[in-house]
Design goal:
Chain lengths: 218, 473
């Protein structure tokens, strides 16, 4: 199981990230103090650290200096929307940078990407009897391989990464099509319908009224 | 065109004109003097010749009553040979030439209108030579004759020509030398201008610390001095402006940071609630966070509004009995059982706007409570001092590290963020207090020892009691 450390001086933010990442299947710990964070990193190994910059005790950059030799990937999370800070963070060896306020889906996706880059995440996603090999980009249901288009594959990955979460049409469209969602567009609906039929998820991939879709599966 | 070149050019033109006119008049004066002298000599010679002629005519044997033409020729010839280079012409009454020297090439127009006992002269210029031609009337043995002489004055004219040419050369050399001298002089005079120009450019480029070097003590030096004073003032103003802008930027940065944190929580939890099926406990946690963070935003916006209002506010200070403040504080905090309060004060009157000073005191007591552990003592004092009435609030809590003391009155600054936020602080209280006290012409003074607590105090103008009596009457 992948362990993630959350360092932010705001308890509500820590809890928020914790709840979301735990739901996706990571184990999370959180501290609100820079020095406590260093203590914890010393004691326990972590696969990923989410680090705020403005912290009491020792600030994010100081902690980063300390983490670097440990080769643990770090994503900075901060309200500072300053290019210099971004560059400084990335130069210090951070893997990514998230600016508050951030989208939860975005957070999960970034965490996923960084973990995959470090081969810490399993490259295989599972949902029921469906497996997705992210490296080979192969989807199988039971033993049967399923052929998907690019967009359908993108949607599938998003749904599996966010199991049991109602995904908004806007979010889905923006993440997969990388474009702004136009209300009344039926493109997304058509793709979801095709995906549902191909995967045999008629009862699992449900439409949520006025919101979007949710994959209900274990 | 550069000003130094302008000075140079003008002075060269003036010098050239002065030299030119001066030289012309001088050479001409010399020439005219010489010419007059020559003419005088010619006239003298003419007189001498007339006298000699008349004498010679008298000595002629008086064979004839009338002077014979050939005798006249003889006398003429004698007269001509008696002097070197002498040229003369003798003509009779009807202008018929009786004797003429060789080379006497002048016209006869001079003799027109000549009268007895008069002498005439003119300067003539046949070919390339100059002559003075004189004419006089002879009276010899009842004959009226005209004697004309010619004197070569080419030398005088030649001298004038040479004089001009020498003078031209001298003038050119003088002009050349003085131009070089003027070039240096004008560069020297305009040096302060160039230095000032450089300084002005430096300032335009943003180097406000540059000062022009003062190289002279004249008006230019005064200008440089004034310029430097001006740039000094400008530098100070710019620095002040920059500091103000920086403070504002810091404020905005801090503000957006403070805004983003509760926003992230509110948006994140709201998103969580609408997307996930949460169990009851998490659902409560999420909605509670949304509520508390929303409250925090509200508190922050109210405080910000207070500060903005305070900054624009004209206070309406009134005589106030200090007991009013302490009674108010006592009422406010008497119900709080988690803290111990002590309140001691000397009676008196101050000049203050009641509501604003109440806000300041509330903030200070609030801060003291936040810095203290439950059950600790918070002391409130009121004391008459020489400079005014001193209010102070003292706690025995965490204290403020020395390096943070200066920043503590800045907006959004919190010594212990997580602690302060957990008590719903926005980091704006002391900034507000500072603004209000500034309106009262006072300031907040802070004494603090880490781990032993802090004391916040301020002075308000004290009003004498007898004033009250006067007002009372």
């Amino acid at each position: 199981m992948i362990k993630i450390l959350i360092v932010d001086d705001e308890k509500p933010i820590c809890d928020l990230i914790d709840i979301n990442l735990s739901a996706v299947g990571y184990r999370c710990k959180s501290v609100q103090d820079g020095l406590a964070a260093i203590d914890l990193i010393e004691k326990e190994p972590f696969d990923l650290i989410l680090l705020d910059i403005m912290l009491p005790g020792a600030d994010g950059f100081d902690i980063m200096e300390y983490i670097r030799p440990l080769q643990v990937p770090v994503i900075f999370i901060t309200a500072k929307h300053d290019v210099r800070d971004k560059v400084k963070g990335l130069k210090l060896g951070a893997e990514d940078y998230l600016v508050k306020p951030f989208d939860v889906v975005e957070l999960v996706a970034r965490v996923e990407v960084v973990l995959r880059r470090f081969h810490k995440s399993e490259n295989i996603l599972r949902a029921g009897d469906v497996t997705v090999d992210m490296e080979a980009r192969k989807v199988t249901k039971g033993e049967r391989p399923i052929v998907l288009t690019n967009k359908e594959y993108g949607l599938l990955v998003l749904f599996i990464q966010n199991k049991n979460v109602a995904l908004f049409k806007e979010t889905l469209y923006e993440k997969v099509w990388k474009d702004e969602y136009i209300a009344d567009s039926r493109t997304l609906e058509l793709h979801v319908q095709r995906l549902r039929r191909k995967m045999g998820w008629e009862s699992n991939l449900v439409a949520v009224y006025k919101v979007g879709y949710r994959l209900e599966i274990d | 065109m550069k000003i130094s070149y302008k000075i140079l050019l003008c002075s060269i033109m003036i010098m050239a004109a002065a030299f030119g006119f001066g030289g012309y008049f001088f050479v001409n004066f010399v020439f005219e003097t010489s010419l007059e002298r020559e003419i005088g000599q010619a006239m003298d010679e003419s007189s001498i010749l007339r006298f000699a002629f008349e004498t010679a005519a008298l000595n002629v044997p008086s064979k004839y009553v009338v002077l014979q033409d050939n005798t006249i020729g003889e006398i003429g010839s004698k007269l001509e040979n008696s002097g070197e280079g002498r040229m003369l012409r003798i003509s009779d009454e009807s202008r018929g030439v009786l004797y003429v020297s060789e080379g006497f090439a002048a016209g006869t127009d001079l003799l027109q209108g000549i009268e007895a006992q008069t002498r005439l002269y003119q300067v003539i210029h046949p070919d390339d030579r100059y002559y003075v031609q004189t004419g006089t009337v002879l009276n010899a043995m009842d004959r009226l004759l005209y004697l004309e002489t010619m004197k070569d004055v080419t030398g005088v004219f030649e001298e004038r020509r040479q004089g001009f040419s020498v003078y031209r050369r001298v003038t050119l050399i003088m002009l050349g030398c003085s131009s070089v001298a003027m070039l240096f002089i004008s560069f020297w005079i305009t040096r302060p201008i160039r230095i000032l120009t450089k300084a002005a450019r430096k300032m335009t480029e943003g180097d406000y610390s540059y000062r022009a070097e003062q190289v002279s003590r004249d008006e230019m030096g005064q200008l440089t001095c004034d310029f430097n004073t001006m740039s000094g003032a400008l530098e100070t103003n710019i620095r002040e402006l920059e500091n103000e802008v920086r403070a504002r930027e810091d404020f905005i940065a801090a503000f957006s940071h403070e805004l983003k944190t509760p926003l992230t929580a509110i948006i994140g939890y709201a998103d969580l609630l609408r997307s996930r099926k949460l169990d009851e406990e998490k659902q409560f946690l999420s909605s509670n966070y949304i509520y508390t963070e929303g409250k925090r935003l509200e508190a922050m916006s109210l405080r910000l509004l207070d500060i903005i209002v305070a900054k624009r506010y004209e206070i309406d200070a009134q005589r106030t009995e200090v007991g009013l403040f302490f009674d108010y504080l006592r009422d406010m905090y008497v119900e709080r059982e988690d803290m111990k309060f002590s309140c001691e004060y000397q009676g008196g009157f101050v000049r203050a706007e009641v509501d604003l000073i109440k806000t300041v005191l509330l903030n200070l007591v609030d801060n003291a409570c936040k810095a203290s552990e439950p059950g600790q003592l918070v002391e409130i004092f009121g004391e008459r001092r020489e400079q005014g009435y001193l209010f102070s609030v003292r706690d025995y809590g965490t204290g403020i590290p020395e390096e943070e003391r200066r920043k503590i009155t800045e907006a959004f600054y919190m010594v212990d963020k997580s602690r302060s936020r957990s008590k719903n602080g926005a980091g704006l209280g002391l900034a507000l207090c500072t603004e209000i006290l500034k309106l009262h012409g006072s300031e907040l003074s802070i004494e603090s020892t880490l781990g032993e607590g802090s004391s916040f105090s301020f002075l308000l103008p004290y009003e004498e009691e007898n004033n009250l009596e006067e007002e009372g009457h």
